[in-house]
Every structure is written in C-alpha cells, then in structure tokens.
Amino acid sequence: MRGAGSKNAWALFLLILAGIVLGGFIGVLAEGVPALSWLSYGQTFGVETPIVLNLGLVVITFGLTIKITIASIIGVIISIFIYRFL
C-alpha cells in the first residue's frame, strides 16, 4: 500500500510528455514571429538515414530523430512544477 504522500510516476511521465509536445508546438508557432523566434532555437539529432530491414515478406524501417528546442525545455520545466504542486 502506498503512503499518503507518494505520487504516481505515470502522472509525471505523462505531464513531461505533454510539456514536450506543447513546448514543441509553441516553438513551431513562434518561428514566424520575430520577437519569439528564440523559442524555436534548438538542436536536432538522431539517425539521418533510416535503417531498413527487408525480410522478403515484411519490410521494417527503423529511424529516430529528436528535436530539442528552448520552448520544449520550458515546457518540461513547467510540467515538473505542475507535478510538484499537485
């Protein structure tokens, strides 16, 4: 049985995921606004060309690209604060 002060790790995971998504969305929206263009500044890394596994009957393509922006970092920080004060 959990104590009264324990918090759910899934709630933190979902809040951080929501912070990343909303922060990335705000970063994309801010690209065209000159005063807010700094929110879309970031770095993209991952697999440039996807890895293809051809098994004859099934073709599986593996690839992962992550784009971290200032807005997504701010979204993660806000989501952690929201989790902490819930």
Short characterization:
With 86 residues, the protein is an alpha+beta fold. 43% of the residues lie in helices and 21% in strands.
Describe the structure.
- The strands form 2 sheets. A two-stranded antiparallel sheet has the order 1-4. Strands 2-3 form a two-stranded antiparallel sheet.
- The protein is flat and about 50 Å long.
- By secondary structure, it is of the alpha+beta class.
- The protein has one domain.
- Helices cover 43% and strands 21% of the residues.
List its salient traits:
2 helices, 21% strand, alpha+beta, two-stranded antiparallel sheet, single chain, 86 residues, flat
Helix content: 40-55%
Topology pattern, helix = H, strand = E: HEEEEH
- Class per helix and strand makeup: alpha+beta
Q: How would you write the strand order of the largest sheet?
A: 1-4
Shape descriptor: flat
Please tell me how large the radius of gyration is.
Answer: 18 Å
Sheet with the most strands, sense and barrel status: 2 strands, antiparallel
Distance between the termini: 20 Å
Mean pLDDT: 89
Number of strands: 4
Which residue ranges are poorly predicted, with pLDDT under 50 across at least 5 consecutive positions?
Answer: none
Instruction: Determine the strand fraction and express it as a percent band.
Output: 15-25%
Enumerate how many helices there are, as a single number. 2
Number of domains: 1
